[in-house]
Amino acid sequence: MNLSCVTLAALIGAASAFAPASSNSRLSTQVFAEKDDDMSKALPFAARPKILDGALPGDVGFDPFGFAGADRESLINMREAEIKHGRLAMLAVIGWPIAELFDSKIAALLGLPSALTNSGESPSLLNGGLDKIEPEYWLVVLGIAGIFEIDSSDTKEAKGKDYIPGDCGFDPVKLFPEDKAGQFEMQTKEIKHGRIAMIALLGFVVQEALYRIPVTAETPFFFNPAF
């Protein structure tokens, strides 16, 4: 696709070299640029959805299933959901292998039963083992999630139009920059890391569901050197 674009641009340039400069040539260049802007950065051969204009960090015009919706409100709601799922995935993609590496050792040290499955996998819907998790744990998780949701709602109401999707008022070490350019860059990094984490976590789930061994044992070169 890039080669065809270069070829087309070269043909246009060659044709204009033999024609006098006029408003028509400038118009054709302008139309070509506008059409190029309407193409997806992720898929240069496909048109981007109109709602994905690049205003949000990490927006590369990729939404083949139309999840973003048809209006700005739907887009912001989906972005908020994406950020929250990405943050959970970033935590889970670290916690999953750490549990498989250290849970049995810590449990034995404390005289407690291991929460891993019989084959040493992290408990999940597909792996099983969720019945080993104490109900108090889920209450704590739900409580923490509720606190962040309330903080996010309060922050959204307080900031109004200045609200940034995913802002729950939590930044104890002041990682979020104060300038607009720095904020946009930091948000782009977060959304990209979140997306990679969601893909990686899905890989953990599928891999263990298929092979029935811990991901740390299936791909030890990713984990053993670090621990």
TrEMBL record:
The family this protein is said to belong to: Belongs to the fucoxanthin chlorophyll protein family.
Keywords: Chlorophyll, Chloroplast, Chromophore, Light-harvesting polypeptide, Photosynthesis, Plastid, Signal
Record-linked PANTHER family: CHLOROPHYLL A/B BINDING PROTEIN
Coiled-coil region: none
InterPro entries recorded: Chloro_AB-bd_pln, Chloroa_b-bind
Any single biological process term in GO: photosynthesis, light harvesting
Signal peptide limits: 1-17
Compartments, as annotated in UniProt: Plastid, Chloroplast
Keyword RNA-binding: no
Protein's UniProt name: Plastid light harvesting protein
Function: The light-harvesting complex (LHC) functions as a light receptor, it captures and delivers excitation energy to photosystems with which it is closely associated. Energy is transferred from the carotenoid and chlorophyll C (or B) to chlorophyll A and the photosynthetic reaction centers where it is used to synthesize ATP and reducing power.
Binding site for chlorophyll a: E82, H85, K189, E190, R195, Q207
GO CC annotations on file: chloroplast; light-harvesting complex; membrane
Positions with a binding annotation for chlorophyll b: R87, E149
GO MF assignments: chlorophyll binding
